[in-house]
Amino acid sequence: MAVVHSKPFEEGTPAFVPIEYSVEDIRKSVPPSCFQRSALRSFLYMLRNVFVFCALGFAASKLDSCSKSLGRSSGVTDAGIKFIKICGWIAYWWFQSLTLTGFWILGHECIHRSFSSSALLCEVVGFILHTITWAPHCAHQIAHVRHHSGRAHMEREEIFVPPTRPLDYAEGNSSTSPTDSIVEYLEDTPLYTLWMLLVQQTIGYPGYVLFNCTGQPARTMGTSQLNPYSQPFKHRFYGVIVSDLAILAMLCIIRKSVKVFGFLIVVKFYGVPWIGLNHWLALITYLQHTGPEVPFYRGKAWNLARGALSTIDRPFLGWQGRFFLFNIAHCHVAHHLFPQIPWYHLPEATEHLKEFLGDHYVYSDEALLRGLWRTYNSCRFVDAEGDVVFYRNKKGKAEMVCTS
């Protein structure tokens, strides 16, 4: 049983009771048909993504010339033509960044063998898809499997590990340095929050890959998915080397493309969508795994089912999230419970899980930007002690409390 926090909570704070079912118990609520994988069906989805990627690129290549022709034939002013171009490129960057993210997600599905029952096929396809999105496949595979096997475990989680503060922090009894006091003062300002979110949404994912940002704080300096000597990855030393060489090959392709087409063309067609990819990955993973209603566990209070249920389903971008992102955010609870279920069966599995799990199923239909802002301000730290802990805001207030 979980231990109750020793720190008092505000009266009226909603109570949380950890689930007692095992993953096998929960599995019985999902029809066996949901676990069936089809390599042909998976390839058709991937080919659809390739087609959209190429079609968007072709449309963008005609955008400037078509805008001029449209302007001349309809009498649009130069300012109007420029406005049409800007709108066209923004639309291209938006949808192409989603398409690139879709490639990354399909590579992620290969890690879980939900793309196909063939381990070799999943390895080859996943390696290619991750490489074109600049994700080092081997190290990412290791880190992601550990994320699933240690989800919401304070000592084993791989990403967005909550910072901790003493139990008496909110009462002002903890000692802080002058520097810490200045930082705490700045944390109260909306501009600071906006700046931190901009950093997270632009370089957060590369920071995680390169420097273990938001990963386990106990990791040594130099931990990186590109470093084969890093403690989490050194048992797959040569696999990490091969992934690094693939990333180096991508760098050479980009360098050659710049020489052939020019720097601005490469930035417009690939660079900006890739920045968008980093934004979507940071946003998706942060909002899937972070929230004041999501528990984190220590010691024997944790088990695989409780960890998997410490995730949130969100109707991310509506139809665009389902089409481009393959249900990764709409059905993330089901994915964490049963990662081998292919994405095209996740909606059906989710409906069965909702009925079985009841209040233990976490769902949020908040607008994305509002949810991002609220989550960041509500989820600043967790208690440094306790078997079941919830995020607290900067004033030390939690929105949930474990009572059993």
Can you characterise this structure?
By secondary structure, this protein is mainly alpha-helical. It has a domain at 15-36 and 151-402. Helix content is 56%, strand content 3%. The chain starts with 14 loop residues before the first strand and ends with a strand.
Task: Give the structure's gist in a few sentences.
With 404 residues, the protein is mostly helical. It has helices at residues 23-27, 39-61, 63-74, 78-111, 119-132, 137-149, 178-187, 190-211, 237-261, 263-289, 304-308, 319-324, 332-337, 346-357, 368-378, and strands at 15-16, 164-165, 295-297, 382-383, 388-390, 401-402.
Question: What would the keywords be for this entry?
Answer:
404 residues; mainly alpha; 15 helices; 3% strand; transmembrane; FA_desaturase_dom; oxidoreductase activity
What best-fitting shape do the alpha-carbon axes yield?
globular
Provide the gyration radius in Å. 23 Å
Query: Total helix count?
Result: 15
Q: What is the tally of beta strands? A: 6
The percentage helix is 55-70%
The strand line-up of the biggest sheet is 1-6
Poorly predicted tracts of residues: 1-9
Biggest sheet descriptor: 2 strands, parallel
- The assigned structural class equals mainly alpha
Binned strand content: under 5%
Q: Helix and strand string, N-terminal first?
A: EHHHHHHEHHHHEHHHHHEEE
List the helices and strands and how they pair.
Layout: E1 15-16, H1 23-27, H2 39-61, H3 63-74, H4 78-111, H5 119-132, H6 137-149, E2 164-165, H7 178-187, H8 190-211, H9 237-261, H10 263-289, E3 295-297, H11 304-308, H12 319-324, H13 332-337, H14 346-357, H15 368-378, E4 382-383, E5 388-390, E6 401-402
Parallel strand pairs: 1-6, 2-4
Antiparallel strand pairs: 3-5
